[in-house]
Amino acid sequence: MGYTITEKIIMKNTGQVAIKPGDLTTVNVDRAMVHDIFIPFVVSKFNEMGFDKVWDPDKIVLVYDHLVPTSFIEDSRHHKIGDEFAAAHGIRAVHRADGICHQLMPELRYVVPGQIVFGTDSHTTTYGAVGALSTGIGYTEMAAIFGTGKLWIKVPSTIKFIINGELPKGVYAKDIILRILGDIGSDGAAYKAIEFAGATIENLSIASRMTLCNMAIEAGAKFGVVAPDAKTFAFSGGDKAAYQHLQSDADAVYERVVEYDGSTLKPVVACPSNVDNISDVTDLLGTRIDQGFLGSCTNGRIEDLEVAAKILKGRKVASFTKLIVTPASRSILAEAVKKGYIKTFIEAGAIIQPPACGLCCGRSGGIVSDGERVIATNNRNFLGRMGSPKSEIFLASPATVAAAVIEGRIVDPRNYLP
Amino acid sequence: MSSFTGKVWKLCDDIDTDIIIPTEFLAMKSVEDMKKHAFHPLRPELAALIQPGDIIVAGKNFGCGSSREQAPEILAALKVGCVIAKSYARIFYRNAFNNGLLLLENDQLYDLCNEGDELTVELEKGQVHLGERTFQVAAIPPDLLQMVQDGGLVATMRKLNKK
Lengths: 418, 163
Description:
The structure holds two protein chains of two kinds.
Chain A: H1 5-14, E1 24-28, E2 31-35, H2 39-48, E3 60-63, H3 75-89, E4 93-95, H4 101-107, E5 116-119, E6 133-136, H5 139-148, E7 150-154, E8 158-164, H6 173-184, E9 193-197, H7 199-203, H8 206-214, E10 223-226, H9 230-236, E11 256-261, E12 268-270, E13 278-280, E14 291-295, H10 296-299, H11 302-312, E15 322-326, H12 330-338, H13 341-348, E16 351-352, E17 373-376, E18 392-395, H14 398-407
Parallel strand pairs in A: 2-3, 2-5, 3-4, 5-6, 8-9, 8-11, 9-10, 14-15, 14-17, 15-16, 17-18
Antiparallel strand pairs in A: 1-7, 12-13
Helix pairs in contact in A: 2-5, 6-8, 11-13, 11-14
Chain B: E1 3-10, H1 17-20, H2 31-34, H3 46-49, E2 55-58, H4 70-77, E3 82-85, H5 90-98, E4 103-105, H6 109-112, E5 118-122, E6 127-130, E7 133-136, H7 142-150, H8 153-162
Parallel strand pairs in B: 1-2, 2-3, 3-4
Antiparallel strand pairs in B: 1-5, 5-6, 6-7
């Protein structure tokens, strides 16, 4: 009997020679990430538990992103506690204003193929894009990892999505994952791993694969994973030979295999206030929009800014609409400046924000009031996530967002692409 | 805690962690401050009405969304007796037990109970009683139940580090 890539990574980690879905096993943590919101909680739980040193300071990464730049007087406390804890325990990887944790972890190669990584954030599933197993946990379990370097997990079964065929113009990774969410629902992969495969996935950039794995959690998944290939090797570096085992066996056992023809997919939108409330963009034409948000760990990368800039080049954001642009990392911002995308956004009338979580987590930069509508590239449209519970959030690809803010209403992005 | 009775607060499917505790309240200094804002986007009045021992009954996928552990922690701080939902999201499920919040699963009770009803939970029997009717809940592994009774993972780790 063969194994899935998920089972193989777990077996390599634990040294087990056979496992099956449902088995409980204790894994060795290759990397642990905590972001600023949860740092004070992890630190206090760590102390309450009676630990006096961390298991390995070189395997811990602290990222300040949710509260950067600070918006309230108390926010700095989180960063101060992080700085003090890092100094006390010799943790060198502290990113104070470099971007969003889920962008930085793969970008800076803190996570590479075959690793098992935990973070105190649900979108930690993003790193499956480079062939790692990664998922979100709470701060109490993270405190236990800081002390022990270990965590028990249940071996998940896997749902495999095989997507073949060339994506039509105006259809992107975001449309693929929203379509899947609409089909399987917000608990359609609860406790399971999602494996993305097929020619369409092979043709996607690492950035687009990050978009897919980022939103695996929106179906309740424990992991989202794409088997590493030459693109992964180029992105993550390391020893190519060591990646050879990171492929699912031909006779691996899946809970379910779902196939899509990529050439039939369309631009779609997640409507308020659930990620699985999916409509074709063509069914929403004319919906008034007060604000666009281009950013987040889902779609704040250079290819996202590029497609939006192409659409906005020589055009203006509608007078009654705002566009907020928040690159996912400092290096992405620098590249977007170099390539002229930021100039295009400024000329179009956009508001440019520093690389961080920004509006996605609803704590800063563009909070909305009763009755306002936002179209956004991030991953969640939950009730009240960007401000008033009486506001509405629509989720879509960067192209769909960029086209919508030009008209101040939802339009078909295919008509705006060069 | 083997047997207890509580009043029902009934919530719908897909109660996400942004509803249980919105991000704007996450950087408050204490869970005691935060718990006043439980369920704010959906029912701002609810946190003040929940009494110790009350039971939250919900539909499928309770606790979906972010990993914020304040979500189960504030429900534990409000001294919710337990949550009984059709199903739970994975991260929330782990976080709840790690914070001493008891979660029970049953897919029939939801459609048959109303807000304000009284439920009696008998953990040893794995049963929940609503008037004359009895509902079976899935068994909780003994080590998890022990962790809930100890108050969560911190207490468990403290025991370990004292040895």
